[in-house]
Amino acid sequence: MASPFSNFDPNRLLTLEEAQAIEQTLLPAQERFLIRVALYSLRYLKPMAEQAQVSLNQLSPELIYQGLEQDETLLKEEHQSPGFLTWYGQFLIASLNQLRQAGEFCQVSPEELSLEQVIDWFRSQAQQRLRH
């Protein structure tokens, strides 16, 4: 499998408009970073789920690692930095768990999440932490 970003276009990760919208939330830096990570992961995992013919809710850690092992770009990175695929897989799995929670919060599937919905979920998480 070729990487979803083999023909790299930075706008596929995050558009300028999306970056501005995230900054305008005035959420703490950690939340803004996590929103960016969630969007990046969503854009990486959607084609992986489509190729495996499953929804993001059905995408298992095993399928994620299988997809990563077929990504030529990541295999090169693994060759240079052993353990990279394991780290990256854990990164994607953690992000997917957040996307699933955001989907439940917004009552949509993770695939259908909009930027605004992702921001709303992270805002609600930040507010919950402040209350405790």
Quick synopsis:
By secondary structure, the protein is mainly α. The protein is 71% helix and 0% strand.
Contiguous runs where pLDDT drops below 50 for at least 5 residues = none
Measured distance between first and last alpha carbons: 44 Å
H and E string: HHHHHHH
Structural class, from secondary structure content? mainly alpha
How many beta strands in the DSSP annotation?
Answer: 0
The helix tally amounts to 7
Mean pLDDT: 90
How is the quaternary structure best described?
Answer: single chain
Question: How many discrete domains?
Answer: 1
Name the shape in a single word: globular
Rg over C-alpha atoms, rounded to the nearest angstrom: 15 Å
Share of helix, binned? over 70%
- The fraction of residues assigned to DSSP E strands is under 5%
Biggest beta-sheet profile: none
Record the SSE blueprint.
Layout: H1 10-13, H2 16-23, H3 29-52, H4 61-69, H5 72-80, H6 84-106, H7 115-131
Helix pairs in contact: 3-6, 3-7, 4-6, 6-7
Describe the structure.
Helix 3 packs across helix 6, helix 3 packs across helix 7 and helix 6 packs across helix 7. The protein is globular. The chain has one domain. The mean pLDDT is 90. With 132 residues, the protein is mostly helical. Helix content is 71%, strand content 0%.
Keywords summarizing the entry:
about 130 residues, mainly alpha, about 70% helix
